Amino acid sequence: MTASPYAALLRQQAYIDGRWLDGAETFTVTNPATGACIAQVPDLGAADTQAAIAAAEAALPAWRALPAKQRSAVLRRWYDLILANADGLAALMTAEQGKPLAEAKGEVAYGASFVEWFAEEAKRVYGDTIPAPSGDKRLLTIKQPIGVVAAITPWNFPVAMITRKVAPALAAGCTVVLKPSDETPLCALALTALAEQAGLPAGVLNVITSRQAAAVGQVLTDSPVVRKLTFTGSTGVGKRLMAQCAGTVKKLSLELGGNAPFIVFDDADLDLAIQGILLAKFRNAGQTCICANRLLVQEGILPEFARRLADAMAAFNVADGASGNSQIGPLINAAAVSKVQSLVDDALAAGAQCQFRHPQLPEAGHFSAPTLLTGVTPQMRIAKEEIFGPVASILAFKDEAEAIALANDTQSGLAAYLYTRDLGRLFRVAEALEYGMVGINDSAISNEVGPFGGVKESGLGREGSKYGIDEFLEVKYLCLGGL
Ligand code: SIN
């Protein structure tokens, strides 16, 4: 029997204060493409979460006192180890999350890029000197780590959403309690094993595997020791966590749901727009917060655009992500498949037309058919809710003003996309869109150097980029008098 490609990275214990530990209870991690059981991990609760917070608190003084160059060196070694183990991590990700292996490899590289970036940024935490209001004073600012950080991460990017939060926190000199999604704890544990190998001291990063999200979240948010919560997930849960953090006035970074418009004007390069929508809609089988949720297409080009998109979708290989040539993997679980189907059914009942539905789905696993709907209206649920599945829904618009109004008609404001060759329109529309990120003739907007984050109910703060580390730092103002 051949060993699994991720055997060396598989950990089935949680990690607190530098120790791998079992739990009295466990839960099963399954492969969404096959239903097979991959692992059993501890189902930790409130007491273990308190222990993890205490470990992070105890480790804080030494970690924040370390010169930035030394913290940077640990992060750099972690980065090297992630890349050295990229194939194993990708295979593990495909097994627990379902995304095609090629995409999983891409995510490992994407995730590692945050570790490299923040290893560099650790050394550039500069303060200011400020012109003083009188001659006998000198004013300056320093930036200091905020303290113990709680990070709650989602299942759709089991590596990158961890590194995008944990790497800047560690770079800044904070210590971390991480609660990964119960759907995908294995990548979190594998990353942690690599961080340990890189020389991260005990207590600096602690991982609580748990299915008791509410109980763990309550302890993390109630704790006065935890000074910052960083969360990626649904808007509903984000709002609850935000309310829970009020009691201790914690700093918050929230990366919540989106309802991205993908606007195609009649002067757009249609080849480019089709290429863009294939990525923006179908990456990770449509399960990203920045996936195009509403395709707004100008009336005159709509039939041609829909025909070309349906042709491209017909060529998809919908299969187990581990099969090598899969382009669309399964959704994360059965509930996700039902939710997507209910949005499609609702739209069809309200008058939308099905232009294409992929005919070949694997028999087992949580697969959802890539589907193209036209005739969608803003009142339909599918235009208001995050689809999180491989369903493209097209709404028609007449002119620029209507496109902007439709695009902004949502409480979400994460990513938007815009395709046009008119330079004036490009700036007018990009500036009018109420979103944190706008892809213009390009939908590959995610990387470590650009600031990722939303406005309105899509969240608070920015991840990655030169701004990302500030989310884990406090500015302290020093006023020197009597000089
Ligand atoms: C997300 O879906 O939350 C993250 C997507 C990305 O980083 O591109």
Summarize the structure.
This protein is α/β, with parallel strands linked by helices and 483 residues long.
Gross morphology is: globular
Order of strands, widest sheet:
14-15-16-13-12-17-18
How much of the sequence lies in strands comes to 15-25%
Bound molecules: succinic acid
Report the CATH C-level class of the largest domain. Alpha Beta
Taking pLDDT < 50 over at least 5 consecutive residues as the criterion, the unreliable ranges are none
Largest sheet: 7 strands, mixed
Whole-number tally of structural domains: 2
CATH T-level topology of the largest domain: Aldehyde Dehydrogenase, Chain A, domain 1
Class based on secondary structure composition and strand pairing:
alpha/beta
Radius of gyration: 23 Å
The CATH architecture classification of the largest domain is 3-Layer(aba) Sandwich
Separation of termini? 76 Å
Tally of DSSP helical segments: 14
Q: What is the helix content?
A: 25-40%
CATH superfamily of the largest domain: Aldehyde Dehydrogenase, Chain A, domain 1
Number of strands: 20
- What does the average pLDDT come to? 98
Can you walk me through this structure?
This protein is of the alpha/beta class and 483 residues long. It has two domains: 7-257 and 458-479, Aldehyde Dehydrogenase, Chain A, domain 1 (3-Layer(aba) Sandwich), CATH 3.40.605.10; 260-409 and 415-448, Aldehyde Dehydrogenase, Chain A, domain 2 (3-Layer(aba) Sandwich), CATH 3.40.309.10. 38% of the residues lie in helices and 20% in strands. It contains 14 helices and 20 strands. It has helices at residues 46-65, 68-84, 86-97, 101-121, 160-172, 185-197, 213-222, 235-245, 270-282, 302-314, 334-349, 381-384, 400-408, 423-432, and strands at residues 14-16, 19-21, 26-30, 37-42, 129-130, 138-145, 148-152, 175-179, 205-207, 226-232, 251-255, 260-264, 292-298, 353-357, 371-374, 391-397, 415-419, 437-440, 459-460, 473-480. The strands form five sheets. A seven-stranded mixed beta sheet has the order 14-15-16-13-12-17-18, with helices on both faces. It binds succinic acid. Succinic acid (SIN) is lined by residues 156-157, 160, 232, 255, 288-290, 446. Pfam families: Aldedh (PF00171). This is NAD-dependent succinate-semialdehyde dehydrogenase. The active site is at 255. It comes from Pseudaeromonas paramecii. InterPro entries: Ald_DH/histidinol_DH, Ald_DH_C, Ald_DH_CS_CYS, Ald_DH_CS_GLU, Ald_DH_N, Aldehyde_DH_dom, Aldehyde_DH_Superfamily, Succ_semiAld_DH.
